Amino acid sequence: MSRLSVVFGGSRGIGRAVARLLAQKGHRVVVVSRNAELAQATAATLPGEDHVALSCDVSKEQEVQKTFETIQKSCGSVGYLVNAAGINKDGLLLRTRPDDMVSVLHTNLLGSMLTCRAALRSMLTQGGAIVNIGSVVGLKGNAGQCVYSASKAGLEGFTRSLAKEVASRNVRVNLLAPGFIRTDMTAGLGLRGQQQEAASAAAAVPDMERRIPLGRFGEPEEVAQAVLFLLESPYITGQVLLVDGGLQLAM
Ligand code: NAP
Question: What is the pLDDT of residue 196?
Answer without folding.
Answer: 43
